[in-house]
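Hi support team,

I've been running sequence recovery on a batch of backbones for a student project. Most finish fine, but this one hangs at about 90% for roughly twenty minutes before it completes. I'm not sure whether the input is malformed or the queue is just slow. I've pasted the structure tokens below so you can try to reproduce it. Let me know if you need the job ID as well.

Thanks,
M.K.
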């Protein structure tokens, strides 16, 4: 079983994806981590995330199996990720790894949950389940701001909101693999607890497979 979860930044995709993977005993891949890791590497090398040569070079140098060592959850890295994600050849390099993960999930699992921006449209267009998880920008900014503060990182609500809005605009309007709901079932998490979101998705998936 392949579950594709797409949506804008900080909408709750990761939380839902992890819970669904655990519940249905599936492997889990946060594809944003791949783009963030490339962004981190470009910045580390003193490169420009919007420059195709710098970004493709970093994408090729990445070991996708080994992304745990660095902190990828700063807004600087997120912005770099969003910029290089608009470069077609970067997406091509990362696509192969994502599709291999979905085809042969690690640990002998019977399927996988992938979350990102183009999972239902490009990476796994034949996914058994497609979800589009969204929430109002102000709510997403509040949640992300709180998360950053809890990690001890410097952040202001206004800066996080501006960054999230700029990133969404870039992710939605790029020519290659833009963020869109397509034929996915939409879940708006603005007024819902993580438990309620999980229950809605679980019921939808069980309905589909019965
Ligand atoms: O999900 P995230 O916020 O960690 O993703 C960081 C950036 O990576 C996001 O702004 C756009 C890009 N991304 C993408 O283009 N396609 C994906 N499947 C996942 C992430």
């Amino acid at each position: 079983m392949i579950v594709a979860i797409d949506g804008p930044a900080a909408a709750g995709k990761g939380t839902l994806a992890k819970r669904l993977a655990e519940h249905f005993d599936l492997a889990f891949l946060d594809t944003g981590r791949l783009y963030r890791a490339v962004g981190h590497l470009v910045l580390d090398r003193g490169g420009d995330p919007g420059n195709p040569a710098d970004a493709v070079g970093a994408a090729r140098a990445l070991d996708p199996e080994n992304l745990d060592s660095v902190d990828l959850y700063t807004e600087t890295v997120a912005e770099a990720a969003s910029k290089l994600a608009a470069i077609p050849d970067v997406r091509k390099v990362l696509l192969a790894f994502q599709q291999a993960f979905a085809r042969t999930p690690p640990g002998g699992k019977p399927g996988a949950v992938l979350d990102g921006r183009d999972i239902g449209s490009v990476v796994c267009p034949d996914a058994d389940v497609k979800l589009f998880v969204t929430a109002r920008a102000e709510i997403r900014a509040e949640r992300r701001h709180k998360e950053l503060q809890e990690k001890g990182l410097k952040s202001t609500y206004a800066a996080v909101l501006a960054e999230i809005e700029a990133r969404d605009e870039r992710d939605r309007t790029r020519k290659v693999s833009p963020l869109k709901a397509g034929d996915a079932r939409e879940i708006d998490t603005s007024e819902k607890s993580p438990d309620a979101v999980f229950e809605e998705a679980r019921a939808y998936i069980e309905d589909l497979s019965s």
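--
Follow-up from support: It reproduced on our side and the slowdown came from queue contention, not your input. The pocket of 2'-deoxycytidine-5'-monophosphate is lined by residues 9, 31-32, 35-36, 78, 81-82, 85, 116-118, 167, 171 (CB under 6 Å). No action needed from you.
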